[in-house]
From TrEMBL:
Keyword field contains Secreted: no
Chain residue ranges for the region called Disordered: 1-21
A Pfam family this chain is assigned to: MoCF_biosynth
Gene3D superfamilies: MoaB/Mog-like domain (3.40.980.10)
Annotated transmembrane regions: none
Family annotation (NCBIfam families): molyb_syn
Organism: Gordonia lacunae
PANTHER family: MOLYBDENUM COFACTOR BIOSYNTHESIS, MOLYBDOPTERIN MOLYBDOTRANSFERASE
InterPro entries on file: MoaB/Mog-like_dom_sf, MoaB/Mog_dom, MPT_Adenylyltrnsfr/MoaC-Rel
Residues of the MoaB/Mog domain: 71-215
Protein's name in the database: Molybdenum cofactor biosynthesis protein
Keywords: Molybdenum cofactor biosynthesis
C-alpha cells in the first residue's frame, strides 16, 4: 500500500513501522474528534473516584444507625435439601448489615416458583423494607425466581436491574451480568433478585445498597 493510500481520509491504517507514543493518548479513529486531552482523562478519573467514594460513604453508616429491616431468600435446590452447606445467606446478611440494615432472617427455598413466591410474599407481608433473593435468575429449567417475583411487584425498577447487570459485567461476574433478575416495589417493600455466585453477590450488593437506601427513603415519605 502506498503512503498516499495510507493517508487517504476516512481510512484508519496501522503500520508496523508506525511509532506509537503510549503517553501521548493521541488516539485517532476514522471520523473521530482527534487527540484525547490528558487533562480530560485526569478529570474523568477524578470524577469516577469521587462517585465511588460518595457511594461507599452512603453504604457505611454510623454504628447503630439503620436504614431498615431486610430479609434474605436463598434459592438453591441442594441447600434446601441439606446437601450443600456453602450457603450465600450469611454473606448477603453480612453485606446488608454493613450497609445499615437489620437482617431479620435468611431463609432457603428450592427452585420452585410457588416456594419462592411464598417466601418473598411472606417477607412483604411481614413489613420488611428490603428483600434480597439470591439464585434462580439464570436460564436453566429451575431458574424461575424472576417468574416468581414479577406478579408480586407493583412497580418495576428497571434502573436497579440494569445497574446490577452492567456492574456485574464490568466486574467480571458473568452470571451477574447475564442475570434475568428483577427489582421493584411490592407494597412498601423493595425486592431485588441477585445471581448466586459470591462475585455476583458482592458486586450486586455494592451496586444495589445505595440505590435501595434512596428507594426506601422515598417510599417512607408517603
Amino acid at each position: 500500500m502506498s503512503d498516499a493510500a495510507s493517508r487517504k481520509p476516512g481510512n484508519t491504517v496501522v503500520s508496523a513501522e508506525t511509532d506509537i507514543d503510549e503517553n501521548s493518548l493521541d488516539v485517532r479513529l476514522a471520523g473521530g474528534p482527534g487527540p484525547v486531552d490528558p487533562a480530560d482523562v485526569v478529570a474523568a478519573d477524578a470524577a469516577a473516584r469521587e462517585f465511588v467514594a460518595r457511594h461507599e460513604q452512603a453504604t457505611h453508616r454510623p454504628q447503630g444507625e439503620e436504614i431498615g429491616r431486610a430479609l434474605v431468600v436463598v434459592v438453591d435446590d441442594e441447600a434446601a435439601h441439606g446437601e450443600d452447606q456453602r450457603l450465600l445467606g450469611p454473606l448477603v446478611s453480612e453485606l446488608l448489615a454493613e450497609a445499615g440494615f437489620h437482617v431479620d432472617a435468611a431463609v432457603v427455598v428450592s427452585g420452585d416458583e410457588v416456594e419462592i413466591r411464598n417466601a418473598l410474599n411472606t417477607a412483604v407481608i411481614g413489613g420488611v423494607d428490603l428483600v434480597v433473593s439470591v439464585g434462580g435468575v439464570g436460564v436453566g429449567a429451575r431458574d424461575v425466581t424472576p417468574e416468581a417475583t414479577e406478579p408480586l411487584l407493583d412497580r418495576r425498577l428497571r434502573g436497579i436491574e440494569e445497574a446490577v447487570r452492567s456492574s456485574g459485567l464490568a466486574a467480571g461476574a458473568t452470571d451477574g451480568g447475564l442475570s434475568r433478575g428483577l427489582a421493584g416495589i411490592s407494597g412498601q417493600t423493595l425486592v431485588v433478585n441477585l445471581a448466586n455466585s459470591r462475585a455476583a453477590v458482592r458486586d450486586g450488593m455494592a451496586t444495589a445498597a445505595p440505590l435501595a437506601k434512596y428507594v426506601i427513603e422515598s417510599i417512607s415519605e408517603f
